[in-house]
Every structure is written in structure tokens, then in C-alpha cells.
Amino acid sequence: MTGQIEPIARMAQQLSRLPGIGSKSALRLAYHIVSLPQEQVRELAAAIWQGRKDVKLCPVCGNYTVEAPCPICADESRHNGVLCVVREPRDVAAIERMRDFKGGYHVLHGTLSPMEGVGPDDIRIRELVQRVQDEHIREVILATNPDIEGEATAAYIARLLKPMGVLVTRIAHGLPVGGDLEYTDEVTLAKAIEGRREM
């Protein structure tokens, strides 16, 4: 890193380890941080450290929380026999933003990926099966991403749960609201046709 001041280069190197931050963005952030008042940088560093220290996994659903169980699992009104299965805690946040879903969640913390050596024992599938038995779940909504790993994970979970007599559904995939057919790829269009419903 010729021409760069070593502490800035070290900051940039650490920042570039974050997802979505390339080396140029990391360097820009490092220079910005150096330009801030020291107290503001101290507050930023403290917030990151404290946030990482305080946030843990909910022992019930696997979502991020500061209290156990998380507020969603602690809410009795959400114990309605419906569980939404997602890949990551950020997926819970996305579904909660729409304010329509009133059931519980189960966070897998990954998806099946034989190419990367991720099997059923590496994600929270065993815990899901146990919850379905213990909590008398009547419907499991599979909301994993519509990619190869997400589809494989959804199919695997469906095969496990159907013999237990639980209704297993999959979120619909297709056209975004406001999207144009002419700019939509074939796979998305096929999923939209496949997931059509009666009006």
C-alpha cells in the first residue's frame, strides 16, 4: 500500500472485510472516519462493540435478540400454529416490515449447499422438526430465497415435515409490483405463471 498512511490502510483493510464493501469503498470510509472528531469515532466504535456484545440468538427461533426469548417469541398472540422459515435474521426483519404476518419464525442460519459442504446438520433443521412436534404447528411457510440452495432447502424441509401432518407452503415467486413483463427474465416469468391463483 505505497503512498498510504499505515493506520488508514489498516482501517481500510478491516472495512473491506464487510459484505458489499470493496477496497475503494473501504478506503473512502477509512478516510471519512479519520476526518471525524475523535469523540464521534469513539462512539461509533463503542456502538459496534456493544452491539456485537449484546446481541445473541433467541433460543426458540434463532433470530437476533437482546433478551431471551425474543419479543416475537414472547408475544403470546403470535403463537397461532403458523411458522415462517427463513434463512437469516435479516429475512425476519424484511417480513416484519410488511406488518402483515402474525405468526412465529424459525431462522435456519443458512441453506443446504453440498458444494460448500453445508448439510442438514449444519443448519437449524433438527430444531425446526422439534418445534413442529412440540408447539403443535399446523402450517410451515417456507420463505427461503428462490435460488438453487433455497429451493433445495425448501424441498428437503417439505419432505421431512409432510409425514408429520403439517401443512407446508412455499412463498410465491414472480413479478415485482410495478414491473414490466418485457424486462422480466424467463425464470421469473415462469415462476409467476406457476404461482398464479384464482381471482
Quick structural gist:
By secondary structure, the chain is α/β, with parallel strands linked by helices. Helix content is 43%, strand content 11%.
Oligomer: single chain
Question: Taking all residues together, what is the mean pLDDT?
Answer: 91
Which structural class do the helices and strands define?
alpha/beta
String of helices and strands:
HHHEEHEHEHEHEH
Shape: globular
CATH class of the largest domain: Alpha Beta
What would you report as the Rg, rounded to the nearest angstrom? 21 Å
Strand content range: 5-15%
Which strands sit side by side, in order, in the main sheet? 4-3-5-6
The poorly predicted ranges are none
Main sheet overview: 4 strands, parallel
Number of helices: 8
CATH architecture of the largest domain: 3-Layer(aba) Sandwich
Total strand count, please? 6
Helix percentage range: 40-55%
Tally of separate domains: 2
Q: Whole-Å distance between the termini?
A: 62 Å
Assign the CATH topology of the largest domain: Dna Topoisomerase Vi A Subunit, Chain: A, domain 2
